[in-house]
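User: Sequence in, structure out. Go.
Assistant: Echoing your sequence, followed by the structure tokens.
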Amino acid sequence: MENLEEGCLHDFHADPLCVSARTAKSRPSTAMWKWISTLGLVFWMSTSASAALAETIVVTGSSGIIDNKDGSCSISEAIKNANADDNKMHPDCAAGKGTDTIVLSRDVKLETDVDKADGRNGTPSISSSIILEGGGFTLQRADLICTLDGVIQSNEFRLLHI
């Protein structure tokens, strides 16, 4: 049972303990505020720096075909540009820069294996830090039949290789 009397807190089961109203609120010290402010500034600077070293590459093409003259950015062109930071290999897409975000703006159907260097892949191998945002759109094989029966067929390939 506790009773507050003249700025002192009394516990009737133990010795009286006097606590001033100022210390009872447990406010952070000036040093604590400086530490919190410094920590917040460092966090803000690190997130701002990483955001400045990234690019958003929007996929506007509906296939994985690489065609530098079709005016649309395919998923394959986007991955190649993201892998090759600051080197715009495919002019239909933005150049990559750091951890890039590739955004699908439509459904993408892969018709063939584009990259055979690392097996049969519907897109080039991902060799950099990439965020892939589907936004409700799909990335799939054009021919959904994939039997994996040991017989190599053109419609049997990985969608992504990381």
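User: And one key feature?
Assistant: The first strand starts at residue 2 and ends at 5.
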